[in-house]
Design brief:
alpha+beta; PmbA/TldD fold; 2 domains; five-stranded mixed beta barrel; 9 helices
Length: 448
């Protein structure tokens, strides 16, 4: 097979999926679903002006799941030839015959399948070769290094471009596919003053390469961030307000989504167990799911089970409206799927009654910690206990005073969510969760 990756591959992938489903039925499966994909990409990394790596990615694959009543079997292959598809279906059927029956197993309900497939503007291939990509990465890094003589070293600048086509189908008759792209540029630089060395980075991600931040400007942003960290101090242990940058705030909402996922709920392993209908956030905060945003990184007309996605108010005036469910977890909880098999589709965080620009957040905080980077994985999804290494800046009288590092911030996520006092208008759209900075009334900061 030629490894061309564009919409012309959809009929071929539909044939692969349809064949797998037909063979599963012929083998006695009561239901089945399958997805097939082809992908290709290019990643280059330049360090100190020299080419570090050039990687060409080419991938293809098919996965099939079969159901014999309530018994389930899955298998996958990286070979899309008919004989490989046949063998993969046979393996899935064999596995299903030996698995235990689970009365929540099965496809999502037929009536929930997507019927409408709007053009979400997700496919924007970048006609760029390795030499051009290297030159763009080199320009990005060089612009950053040129900002100041104290920028003595680099972890490199990387440019990546990816395009894929995926088709999903099931024995309800659902069969759909779409091509999509993603492109990124990043740069990480090291600043040195005497024996001290500090590192920082910046990045840009987009569906369309024209939406990426200009390379030299991105390099300069990485440089400014690294320079700003020189002279970093440690803090004595205290309790103080904490302001999370948009990139760090995204993780706070990610922990929230993890806690309201169906799997966390039915396993009774969530600090927000049975919290639907509860006041989780302040009344000024709203969380909305918007799957149909053009060019957005998490847009889709259907989830990984073919269920139609929909606009949804996940948190209204601080109150949790419901959970994030696929069909299996929904059945375990006695509920209906929310079209979230595979995750959320563009979570928007807003607080029209309590949003201000970054300077306004600093003034509102007065004195406290502004967090720009975190390390470690000290988050307990069952208890909500939160403790992570952090670095950023100490703020005095509403202005950044000096950089800080080698500290730990700690709290409990339930209390942290209720303790949000304001959100920033500096919304970062480079991810599936779109949010601005978040100001919390207080956390424990441990340092010296």
């Amino acid at each position: 097979m030629a490894m061309q990756v564009d919409a012309t591959r959809i009929p071929e992938l539909q044939q692969v999926v349809s064949s797998a489903l037909a063979q599963a039925r012929a083998a006695g499966a009561s239901a089945a679903d399958a997805d097939a994909s082809v992908q290709q990409g290019l990643t280059v990394t330049v360090r100190m002006g020299e080419v570090d790596t050039i990687e060409h990615h080419r991938d293809r694959g098919m996965a099939v799941t079969v159901y014999f009543g309530f018994r389930k079997g899955s298998a996958s292959t990286a070979d899309l030839r008919p004989e490989a598809v046949t063998q993969t279906v046979a393996k899935a059927c064999t596995i299903a015959r030996y698995t235990a029956s689970d009365d929540c197993a099965g496809l999502a309900d037929a009536g929930a399948m997507a019927q409408v497939f709007p053009d979400l503007d997700l496919d924007h291939p970048w006609d760029i070769d390795a030499e051009q990509a290297v030159e763009l990465a080199r320009e990005c890094e060089a612009a950053g290094l040129a900002v100041d003589a104290r920028l003595t070293n680099s972890e490199g600048a990387s440019l990546s471009t990816h395009r894929g086509v995926r088709v999903y189908g099931n024995t309800h008759g659902f069969l759909a596919g779409q091509p999509s792209t993603s492109h990124s540029l990043s740069c990480a630089l090291l600043a040195q003053s005497g024996a001290e060395m500090q590192r920082d980075y910046w990045y840009s991600v987009a569906r369309h390469h024209a939406d990426l931040q200009d390379g030299p400007a991105l390099g300069r942003r990485a440089a400014e961030r690294a320079l700003a960290r020189l002279g970093a101090q440690r803090l004595g242990t205290r309790r103080a307000p904490v302001l999370f940058s948009p990139q760090m705030a995204r993780g706070l909402y990610g922990h929230f989504i993890g806690a309201i996922r169906g799997a966390s709920q039915y396993r009774r392993a969530s600090f927000l167990l049975d919290a639907a209908g509860e006041q989780v956030f302040p009344a000024f905060l709203h969380l909305q799911e918007r799957p149909y945003l053009p060019r957005a990184l998490a847009s889709s007309a259907y989830d990984s089970e073919g269920v139609a996605t929909r606009d949804r108010e996940l948190v209204r005036a601080g109150v949790l409206d419901g959970y994030v469910l696929g069909s299996y977890s929904a059945r375990k909880l006695g509920l209906k799927t929310t079209g979230n098999a595979g995750g959320v589709h563009n979570l928007l965080v807003n607080a029209p009654a309590a949003s201000t620009d970054f300077a306004g957040l600093l003034r509102q905080m007065g004195s406290g910690l502004y967090v720009t980077e975190m390390m470690g994985q000290g988050v307990n999804g069952v208890t909500g206990d939160y403790s992570r290494g952090a670095s950023g800046f100490w703020v005095e009288n509403g202005a950044i005073a000096y950089p800080v590092h080698e500290i730990t911030i700690a709290g409990n996520l339930r209390e942290m969510y209720r303790g949000i006092v304001a959100l920033g208008t500096d919304v970062d759209t480079q991810g599936g969760i779109r949010c601005g900075s978040v100001l919390l009334e207080g956390m424990t900061i441990a340092g010296e």
